[in-house]
Amino acid sequence: MTLSQQKISPLDALWALYQSQSKRVRQAFRARMLAEESRKRNNAEMQAYERGLSPELRTSVRLMATSIKKNVSEVLQAAAENEHVGRPADEFLKELEMYPTSFLHI
């Protein structure tokens, strides 16, 4: 009996591994691949959008995004600790007035 070496491409090896998985694992894999492609596409679109903004507007948008992320984090933490969530609407609106609205297409 002689052993022969066959060259299997990485693609064929991955395909064989994929096909050997259960339907549930294959579905989860496809969902992950689609999510990754969507994330990359969204990042590319956002970078293209940012390149079209003036430096001042870009800075303002980033400051607003940072503020929103901070507030979301505070809300999630308060909710986890069963504390009151939120702040007076007037205070929030006053904060939003600091940012230009031209990027909102209003």
Description of the molecule:
The chain is an all-alpha fold and 106 residues long. It has helices spanning 10-19, 23-51, 55-80, 89-96. The protein has 2 domains: 10-52; 55-106, no CATH class. It has 4 helices and no strands.
List keywords for this structure.
106 residues, mainly alpha, 2 domains, 4 helices, 69% helix, elongated
Helix amount, in percent? Answer: 55-70%
Main beta sheet strand tally, sense and closure: none
Q: Which stretches are low in confidence, meaning pLDDT under 50 for 5 or more residues running?
A: none
Work out the number of β strands: 0
Strand content: under 5%
Distance between the termini: 77 Å
- What is the general shape? elongated
What would the average pLDDT be, to the nearest integer? 86
Give the helix tally: 4
**Series of H and E elements:** HHHH
Q: Whole-number radius of gyration?
A: 24 Å
Number of domains: 2
Strand-pairing-aware structural class: mainly alpha
Task: Give the secondary structure arrangement, pairings included.
Layout: H1 10-19, H2 23-51, H3 55-80, H4 89-96
